[in-house]
Design a protein that fits this description.
This protein has one domain: Sandwich (Jelly Rolls). Strands 1-14-11-16-9-8 form a 6-stranded antiparallel beta sheet, with no helix packed on it. Strands 2-3-4-5-6-7 form a 6-stranded mixed beta sheet, with helices on one face. The protein starts with a helix and ends in an 8-residue tail after the last strand. The longest helix has 13 residues. It is 6% helix and 51% strand.
């Protein structure tokens, strides 16, 4: 319940921020992938002062996703190296989304509804569709692969927890990748517990393997 309240209240700060200009582009129009660093997460002490992080956001090459930022709340309020609650927020055009990860639970809020999902099984554990945009959370175990058709689709992909190998890039939970001009999406989990956020525009067809 406390996590639900936090995710809902976090909109208050996020809505006060404007969209960041899209001044980062692919090297050329035929480029397929672009790796980016997620701004270093602000770490907060639970039940203490909230450490407001500076406005250091990802410049996105797509005009439909922006304001990507991450916060980490520490275990027992004292251990800065043991994250208890990971919070990721982003704007899907003008809709602010929040994703929270706490132990075996995942929370997703879209300004209107907060949903909770258990993280006991692998595969696609949550899907939300907004017109021509799709938000999915995918859970994989080490060595598991995810593959699907993505014809004419732009994608932002990043691990919330763990690591993935995609297009010869090893992505940690401090990185993400933008994908365009590809017919298939393929990545493999490199850690035993891997949770991935996938945000796509246009057709996201079902997983094919």
């Amino acid at each position: 319940m406390e996590r639900r309240r936090f995710l809902q209240k976090s909109f208050l700060g996020g809505l006060a921020l404007g969209l960041l200009s899209n001044n980062v582009l692919f090297a050329n129009s035929s480029a397929q992938t672009m790796v980016f660093d997620v701004p270093k997460a602000s770490k907060h002490i639970r039940h203490g002062l909230f450490q407001n992080q500076s406005l250091n956001l990802v410049n996105c090459p797509f005009d439909w996703i922006n304001h990507l930022q991450k916060d980490v709340f520490c275990q027992d309020g004292i251990d800065l190296e043991a994250p208890e609650f990971v919070h990721l927020s982003f704007k899907l055009e003008n809709k602010l989304m929040n994703v929270g990860l706490c132990k075996n639970s995942l929370y997703i809020t879209d300004e209107l509804v907060t949903e909770e999902r258990d993280l006991n099984n692998s595969g696609i554990i949550n899907t939300k569709v907004y017109e021509d945009k799709t938000v999915q959370i995918i859970q994989l175990k080490k060595g598991q692969k995810h593959k699907r058709k993505i014809h004419n689709t732009q994608i932002c992909l990043l691990p919330i927890k763990g690591e993935i190998l995609i297009d010869n890039h090893l992505l940690t939970d401090e990185q993400g990748i933008f994908v365009q001009n590809q017919n298939k999406l393929f990545f493999e989990a490199q850690r035993e517990e891997t949770i991935v956020l996938l945000v796509g525009k246009n057709s996201l067809q079902n997983k094919i393997t």
